[in-house]
Design a protein that fits this description.
The protein is an all-alpha fold. It has helices at about 5-25, 30-55, 65-90, 95-105, 115-120, 125-150, 155-160, 165-175, 185-195, 195-210, 215-220, 220-245, 250-260, 265-275, 280-304.
C-alpha cells in the first residue's frame, strides 16, 4: 500500500473534520448538540459498528489470529505505560500535569478515530481487530488510569467497566469465535447504524478544533515534540518486535495504525473531573489527530 494511497484516505478523514469545523463556525453545531452527538456515538453507533464488523468477519478470521491481536494490544498498553512513566517528566514538571501527560501517552483514540481510519484504509471487516484494542483499553483505563489519578483503585471504577463499549466488544468476540451468523435484516440495520460512527466522530473533532482556536493548539512547540514521539517514534520502536510475532502483513499494518493513533478523550475527561488544567491535553488531542493524517501513511510505509 503506497504512501499516497493511505495519505488520500487520511485526507478524506481530514475533510470530514473540516466539515465539523465549518458547521461549528456557521453556528449549525453548538456545544450542547456536540455533547449529545458524542453521547450517541459512544453509547449507540460505535458499539453497533463493532458488532457489524464482527458480523462481517465471522468465519473469516482464525481464532489464533484473534488471540494474537489481543496479546499485541495488551503489550502495546504495557509499553505505553512504561514510556509514559519515563518520558512525561521531560514534558512537564508539575505533578498533576505530569499525570496528564502519562495518560496521554497511554490512552490513544483507538475507537473514536481508530475505527474510521481502519475502516477507510483496510475495510470494515478489519474493525474487529480494533475491538480487541478497545477491550484492553477499557480494562487498562478503569484500573491503571483511575488508580494513577486517584492514587488508588475503587470498586466504582471497576463497575464502570460494564458499558456499551465493553458489552458490544464481548458480543463481537462471541460472534467471531462461535461463527454466529446474524439474520440479514439485523445485520443490515446494525451496519447502516454503525456506519454513522465515522463521519459523526470526525465532525465532533472539527467542533473541538473550532471551539479551541488555532493559537492554543498549534502554538505550543513542546506538543509537536510530544506528537512526534507518540505518533512516530514509539510505534516504530515497537515495529521490530511486531515483526517477530506477526506473520500476516494485514494484521501487522492494522497494529501499526493502532500504535500510531492520536491522543484520546479520556485523559481530558479525567482531568476535568479532578479539576485540573487540561489546556495542554485539549490541544494535544486535536494536534495529534490532525498530524496523524501525515504520520499514519509514514507508518504504513515502514509496515510493508
Amino acid at each position: 500500500m503506497s504512501f499516497f494511497t493511505v495519505f488520500f484516505q487520511m485526507l478524506a478523514l481530514l475533510l470530514m473534520i473540516g466539515a465539523g469545523y465549518f458547521v461549528t463556525k456557521k453556528g449549525m453545531l453548538d456545544e450542547h448538540t456536540n455533547t449529545q452527538m458524542s453521547e450517541m456515538i459512544v453509547q449507540i453507533f460505535n458499539p453497533l459498528l463493532v458488532l457489524a464488523s464482527a458480523a462481517d468477519a465471522a468465519g473469516k478470521i482464525p481464532l489464533d489470529t484473534i488471540k494474537l491481536a489481543g496479546g499485541i494490544a495488551a503489550g502495546m498498553f504495557l509499553a505505553f505505560i512504561i514510556a509514559g512513566m519515563i518520558l512525561s517528566p521531560y514534558f512537564e514538571k508539575d505533578r498533576e500535569q505530569k499525570k496528564i501527560f502519562q495518560l496521554m501517552f497511554v490512552f490513544s483514540n483507538v475507537g473514536f478515530i481508530g475505527i474510521p481510519v481502519i475502516s477507510s484504509i483496510f475495510g470494515s471487516e478489519y474493525v474487529v481487530y480494533v475491538t480487541e484494542f478497545m477491550l484492553v483499553y477499557t480494562f487498562v483505563f478503569y484500573t491503571y488510569g483511575i488508580a494513577l489519578m486517584d492514587g488508588k483503585l475503587t470498586v466504582s471504577s471497576l463497575r464502570a467497566m460494564v458499558n456499551p463499549g465493553t458489552v458490544s466488544g464481548l458480543l463481537a468476540m462471541a460472534i467471531i469465535i462461535f461463527e454466529i451468523q446474524l439474520p440479514e435484516f439485523l445485520k443490515t440495520a446494525v451496519t447502516y447504524l454503525g456506519n454513522v460512527t465515522s463521519p459523526m466522530a470526525l465532525v465532533a473533532v472539527g467542533f473541538a478544533l473550532a471551539a479551541s482556536g488555532f493559537g492554543k493548539i498549534f502554538g505550543q512547540p513542546r506538543l509537536y515534540v510530544f506528537a512526534f514521539v507518540k505518533l512516530l517514534v514509539l510505534p516504530l520502536l515497537m515495529l521490530p518486535l511486531l515483526r517477530l510475532v506477526i506473520g500476516e502483513s494485514d494484521l501487522l499494518a492494522v497494529c501499526m495504525v493502532m500504535f500510531g493513533m492520536p491522543v484520546g478523550n479520556m485523559p481530558l475527561i479525567l482531568g476535568n473531573q479532578k479539576g485540573m488544567d487540561v489546556t495542554a491535553c485539549s490541544a494535544a488531542i486535536i494536534l495529534t489527530t490532525v498530524l496523524c493524517v501525515l504520520t499514519v501513511p509514514v507508518l504504513m510505509i515502514f509496515a510493508q
